[in-house]
Amino acid sequence: MGDLLQPWHIIVLLFVLTFFVLHVVLFWLICKKAGMSPLLSLLCLIPYCGPFIVLCILTFSNWRVIPAPQPPPYPPVQPNA
């Protein structure tokens, strides 16, 4: 009863660590695509309010991205001969 690391403790610990790593990696990619410093994703490691802070930063900031070029209209208009 007093053992600190029962087998199910290790499983829960691995699940929680995987969850945190997944959050950091996903927010890292989002911040990088938004043109911000990917290090903002490390705020997700703050329990409870970290992901909320990152989402607020992403929501209320200007994203510095280059818009994709628009393709020409399809089909191209042919001049009458």
Instruction: Give the class from helix and strand content and strand pairing.
Output: mainly alpha
Low-pLDDT stretches:
none
Q: What radius of gyration results from the CA coordinates?
A: 23 Å
Specify the helix fraction band. 40-55%
Note the run of SSEs as H and E: HH
Q: Counting H and I runs of at least 4 residues, what is the number of helices?
A: 2
Shape: elongated
Mean pLDDT over the full residue set: 85
First-last Cα distance = 91 Å
Q: Biggest sheet, in brief?
A: none
Describe the structure.
With 81 residues, the chain is an all-alpha fold. It has a domain at 7-60. It has two helices and no strands. It has helices at 7-33, 50-60. The protein is elongated and about 90 Å long. The model has no long low-confidence stretch (mean pLDDT 85).
Q: In a few lines, what is going on in this structure?
A:
Helices cover 47% and strands 0% of the residues. The chain is mainly α and 81 residues long.
